[in-house]
Amino acid sequence: MNRSDFLKTLGLGALGSLIAPGAAGAGALGARNQKLEASNGALGAMSIGTWPFAEHTTRAALEAMRKGSSALDAVELGVKICEADPRERSVGLGGRPDRDGRVTLDACIMDHLGNIGAVAACEQVVHVSSLARAVMERTPHVMLVGDGATQFAREQGFPLQNLLVPESEAEWKKWLEKAEYKTIPNIENHDTIGQLTLDAEGRLAGCCTTSGMAFKMHGRVGDSPIIGAGLYVDGEVGAATATGHGEEVVRTVGSFRVVAAIKAGKSPQQACKAAVREIHQLFVRRGKPWADTQIGFIAMDLKGQVGGFALRPGFSYAVASAKGVEVLPAPFLLA
Fold this sequence. Notes:
Elements: H1 3-15, H2 26-39, E1 46-50, H3 54-66, H4 71-84, E2 105-111, E3 116-122, H5 128-138, E4 143-145, H6 146-155, H7 166-176, E5 193-198, E6 204-210, E7 231-234, E8 238-244, H8 246-252, H9 254-263, H10 268-286, E9 295-301, E10 306-310, E11 316-321, E12 324-329
Helix pairs in contact: 3-4, 4-5, 9-10
């Protein structure tokens, strides 16, 4: 079964059961984004997400909000589609393992009021997005990690299962032959789904979920579960999420930086571009190579304006609104 067939078998009705237990060149691309940005206001509910697979997750989130779901419920529902897809090799079930052959997942979630939850280095739980929400709603903490996250999942009734699918196991065994650790831009060995939603009531929410870099050191955590790095939501301003090389996003507190720029008057598109420029400038100042690195940001403001920008070509994102669902290639800084 390919990914499209898998998604079709879910059906929109089945999506409801995914809710957690208990609850062409840089210039042309830039012009396209500016056109979208200028015309996206006052469209009501909408959702945006990183990478082409978000075409399905944003559509599902939009449909849910049209039926009355909140932004928070809708964003959780959306990313859970990706988490449950064993063909998607950088998120949830089927995610690529670490150097020891163990699949560990990270996620965070945030609503318009600043409520947050996160889990990191969690094993055996497919829907770490829902687990992050459970941390937010059922504990006095904002993050649980490792065995503690898995223990909490067990206590909360989350099903536990082996996340290592045969295809990922075979890739890991092949990787062990040379054990060479390197990132490859736009190859799904280090990508994430980050998704943002705006409901008809003007409430924002966001979620970021990933299996992290393939063949990482056991215990490695990137930006995805870190509020302010992989995701940030300000209910009075806008929201942003990141994908790519997490260490570089953490270094600049990337998603918070994007939202802060929107608050200061930049459009989501301008804010994403500014954050990418800052990351590149840090590479230059530190004398570090960036050729094997990809970073991408997407953002949304309360007007329904959206933006996306990347360090290098190859990043795209999906936008679901009253106009339909479109996958957009993001403008980029450097070829």
